[in-house]
Amino acid sequence: MKKNVFYLIGIILLMVSCYPGEVDSYEELDLVYTNYDDTYDFVNKGTYAMPDKIVKVTGNLAEGQTPEYVQEPYNSEVLALIKTQMSDLGWTYAADPENADMVLFPAVWSNTTVVYWYDYWCWYYYYYCGWGWSYPSYTTYTSGTMVMALVPTTESIEPSSVWSAAINGLVSGNYNLSRITNGINQAFEQSPYLNTK
Questions:
Q1: N or C: which terminal CB in the chain sees fewer CB atoms within 10 Å?
Q2: Hey, what CATH topology would domain 22-194 get?
Q3: Residue range 127-183, pLDDT digits in tens
Q4: Chain Cα centroid distance, residue 82
Q5: Going by C-beta distance under 8 Å and a sequence separation of 6 or more, which residues neighbour residue 70?
Q6: Whose CA is closest to 122, among 139, 140, 134, 104?
Q7: DSSP class of residue 124?
């Protein structure tokens, strides 16, 4: 029995020593996900087109309405970064999609989550519970996601992406280009199969 207790204490100490600690910044919560069609031949492709605006997916766009776009200068800076990454992998940008092997579609959206709870003061002074009261409290956090998808131009009837990337993290209130840059760089870094050189 004593031996089992020592093992348990050892395991607990080991787990505590490996715990990374509290989150100190938004950047520590960022995630980068990539996926691709492993049967697709990227090496024999070399040109891509891309819209000159990054669309914001709002979920409430009615038919005929103009979509929202990412504001400048963020729009141009993010598109320039994507072009640099694609160029480093051997891709050539084509202004006209008809002259390109692929089209790269970038988009962003954000979600705000509201968490409600009730504090009841007799939780702290349990001997006064007969006279307690509760009051609502809430907190909100916003997560933002940028997605990129590569779609072959030959698939015009039912297009499907052969590469996709999603960069997700908490939004700190405005666009943080260093975080977006890190996320985009990471997405391409973990996609070496896109290299056409």
A1: N
A2: Double Stranded RNA Binding Domain (3.30.160)
A3: 545 444 455 665 665 667 889 999 998 765 566 889 999 988 755 555 567 888 889
A4: 15
A5: 53, 54, 55, 56, 78, 108, 175
A6: 134
A7: T
* 174 Cβ contact partners less than 8 Å away, ≥ 6 residues apart: none
Burial of 110 (C-beta count, 10 Å sphere; 0-12/13-18/19+): middle
pLDDT at 136: 61
Which residue type sits at 179? R
33-46 CB burial, b ≥16 within 10 A, e <16: ebebeeeeebeebb
- The domain spans of the chain are 22-194
> What token pair was written down for 20?
């990374």
Token couple for 78 = 């993010």
The total of other beta-carbon atoms located within 10 Å of residue 150's CB is 25
What is the reported pLDDT for 21?
47
pLDDT tens string 89-129:
999 999 999 999 999 999 988 766 666 655 555 544 445 45
34: tokens are 């990539």
**Amino acid symbol at 56:** K
| Matching residue, tokens 């204490």 | 9
